[in-house]
Design goal:
Elements lengths: L3 H6 L4 H29 L3 H31 L13 H11 L1 H16 L1
Helix pairs in contact: 2-3, 2-4, 2-5, 3-4
Length: 118
């Protein structure tokens, strides 16, 4: 059992980081599917569709950062774009959605492309 002294020594709680990572993964999976719907309805093909996914994923990560991470980072005096207090690392936060949501993006992209073009 962790004590108050343990939290003072290491204020990062592993359960909270796991919860934050799960929330981020759910957000990235949902937005990847929504981006796939958008790419399919727009009729995007080949590299343009993947470029659409890349740009939308970056915008979604910035949106999530500004709503969830930035206000508490600014209040605590941390450096901008520092996510190490809430997630396992910056790489997980900024690029985790690119690989994690790619399958859902492709699935919904091809589904809606086929529905619109059929």
């Amino acid at each position: 059992m962790t004590t108050e002294k343990d939290f003072q020594i290491s204020p990062i709680v592993p359960e909270a980081i796991a919860h934050n990572s799960k929330t981020l993964f759910n957000y990235q999976s949902l937005t990847a599917s929504i981006f796939g719907v958008g790419a399919g309805i727009l009729g995007l093909e080949s590299y343009i569709g993947f470029l659409f996914y890349l740009i939308c994923s970056i915008v979604a990560a910035l949106f999530f950062y500004t709503l969830r991470v930035a206000p508490s980072s600014i209040a605590s005096g941390k450096a901008p774009f520092d996510t190490s207090r809430y997630f396992r690392g910056a790489l997980e936060f900024w690029t985790g959605g690119l690989t994690g949501g790619l399958a859902g993006f492709i699935l919904t992209w091809t589904l809606f492309y086929g529905l619109v073009r059929a």
